[in-house]
Amino acid sequence: MVGMLKRNRGLLLTAAAGAVLIAWFLGGDRQAASDGNLVNLEALQSFAENSYQNYLLAHGASPRPDARVVVEGESYLKAEGGRVSVEKNYEGTDGEAVVTDETGSVTWRFQVEEEGLYHIGVRYFPVEGKSSAIERMVLINGALPFQGADSLILDRVWKDESQETKRDNRDNDLRPGQEEFRSWRETVLKDSNGLNEEPFLFYFPKGENELTFVSLREPMAIDYIELHRQEAIPTYEEAKREYERNGLAAAKDAFVKVQAEKAAYKSSPTLYPIPDHTSPSVEPYSISKIRMNAIGGLNWRLPGEWIEWEIEAPEDGLYQIAFKAKQNQVRGTYSNRKLYIDGRVPFKEAESIPFYYDANWRLQVVGDGNEPYLFHLTKGAHRLKLEVSLGDVTPLIRTVESSVLELNAAYRSILMITSATPDPYRDYQLDRRIPGMVETFAEQSDVLYTVAERLRAITGEKSDKTAVLYTMSRQLREMADDPDTVARRLDQFKINIGSLGSWLLTIREMPLSLDYAVVASPDRPLPKAEKPWYAKLGHEAGSFFYSFVEDYNTIGSAGEEGQDSVTVWIGTGRDQAQVMKEMIDDSFTSRSGIHIDLKLVDMSTLLSATLAGQGPDVAMQIGNADPVNYAMRNASYDVGRFPDYEEVASRFRDSAIAPYRFDGGVYALPEQQTFSMLFYRKDVLAELGLDIPDTWEDVYEMIPELQKRHMEFGLPIQDPQATMVPNETFAMLLFQNDGRFYSEDGADSLLDEEISMQAFQRWSDFYTSYKFPLTYDFMNRFRLGEMPIGIAAYTTYNTLTVAAPEIRGLWDFTVVPGTPEADGTVRRDVASGGTAVMMLESAENKDAAWEFMKWWTEKDTQVRFGREMESLMGAAARYPTANTEALKELPWPVKDYRNLEAQWEWVQGIPEVPGGYFTGRHLDNAFRKVVNQGENPREALYDHVLTIQNEIDLKRSEFGLPSETEVP
User: Fold this and answer.
1) What is the DSSP letter of 496?
2) Angle at 678 between CA 676 and CA 683, to 5 degrees
3) Threshold 0.85, pTM exceeds
């Protein structure tokens, strides 16, 4: 078995390890069960060698001193890279603070009088940056202590721009904008993924120590760092005894309700108010209009996200707390929350408040199910906070995550022998050739079965969440009992591993919607969550009636219509359109006086609407080919005529504008620009002893090393639905050798030149000589390690970050392999894609339309829209803006942005020409003939270039453009 994991068998848990590993997992002999064995998970569990669990076990005998070590921020030993400054009375703090940049590192040296395990607390101030969370790596005495310390998150705090409800001219509530609330904050370093409920413990030996913070993202100021032992949280029984000792009594006739959407603070700008129209009981309610009457939902689902409310207790005493909530998103488990009052958890039971699945709103009183818990509040203002916490499923997720790593390693070991498509008639003798394979399958079968049973016990039911675990456990048991069947089960084994990866993603998501919170004395009755049946009936009948009256697809305006008006079409979702409309109202119309009539439409109707004279003035988010195709037919306007065009064009790289130039004009402005980068698995390449390829020669050397282990190098594949677009791999090879698709005037195809022929030969060789796959799912093969390296669009980064949690930290991306030049430089040219905003020739007020296009593509607008999209939809929706300055301001980690910038320097745009749609189509046809029919590459390409050229000549003749070739 590949030596990536380190097994820890039969180790007794120490006091330190007990802080992380749940006691009820331990002890007991194996008990027979119908499908598997219940086992002591800790005895069989495997963790990555540098995991936090192994770190705790290694230092388990170390004490946890009560000592407190305070390190002042300004007393740092050294700073490397980035800007570091010491500021007096920074943002109101007493004394001095050190302000650190988003790059570089800062190291402190200090004395520790007692060796042991310490928590690390930080008092910090979130300096204005890119509006993303602050991220740091922690090194102790120059070394990374464990995986997890390489990415520690410190929250920024957000609030609504205004607590006043704003409405559009259709009487629908507008979602309030989110703004950062910057203040000094204190936190303890903890697992940003939520897989360890307690804050991280760090071992420091006695004597002189060094602590280093390495900046990964966003600047911050540090007042001090504190090594300490976090106080233990009492149980509720202990808290009740404390109430009795202090003579605390229940409050009388007190009732405080706070609307959940009126939150004071939140950890993310995604946690904005949302509308709920499913019940007449929500507050406020309207049968026909959109009301922002709830908060949370799917936006509030990831560990560590929190919402805080301010309440006013009318008198000293003990209170009960209840939340009107709805959890109708996750079946088979529950959404868990941790409750804080004034910044601290009042007792142990408040760390885990489960909200079970229910299609309706319900009022959940915080308690043990029999009676409510009582909380001590003094008279006056208090802060009530709920934080997403994984609760009892935390150790289960950790266990499955370690199992996925082990099973991935097992799959790769099998793959190296059998390939991805084993011969069903061959005996591979895998049990002999892979030592420990059978034992691994048997052990992991028992582990996953035990996890499934524990999850069933926690949730009280079997569900799709347990079905995945039972299925994989059963398959592993069958493969362990009959190893001769492993090869023919390999494909299903791979699918099940992928399912476990998806399970890890979905089980961590704990969405919850809140309508309001109630703090009341025990003598006050609590309100009912739902209205009577006849109110619900009236709600359903009224909603049905108003569905014929109200137009919910029209984006309302928050302001009065200006003298000038521009009609703009957009084809995205309603949420994106609403964000854009809000931005237009508060930063464009208010400034320019130009009213924008924004319409949410199906953009496939743009052509027919334009021909019918019913089209817009401006069309947004259209494909690269559309502006020039419309220009040929005199349907799009040349924005290059405006006197300030050159100033506007300087916002973009020339490669982004190239597809929109035609016959001396420019017919659109770029919105988004995408290009390819090289993605690689750090762990797999290290395992195989392979380096990241710098040139194509390095790729050729790597291919046999991968293929003899039945692994693959991924190249961009042609989308069968997009054959009008030239293949990215061919374009890469062509551009890196100074080739071009067309002549300067666009009249001739240059694919019959020698450079093009050689690029086509090299491209087809990957599939004829090296047998690269013609179709594949890069995401799944990459996460399994079956394709540990490949070239893909840089937006794949967003998908991997969100959808592949099991390989977090095990992959990276960089510039693509290049072609060396005579002077020693390496060319890394790649082609670009993207979307554009286009003005139609029929626009009545072209100056007003141009003002809108300039506003939309300027840096501040693109940055705001990008941040809004990420706050709306998460990191998977990070916006690939074409504005060079705007991309710098989006919340990319500094290292990753530098990789993007390095590749962006080499991006080239592919011009659009009349008849150019034949280029991608017939390039693909020539390629298929070579790969599928064995034709000579040069002859195949030459034949299809003639067809391409004929179409170009035909179209140029049709549009009255000069052509050297006579069209028959």
Assistant:
1) H
2) 150
3) no
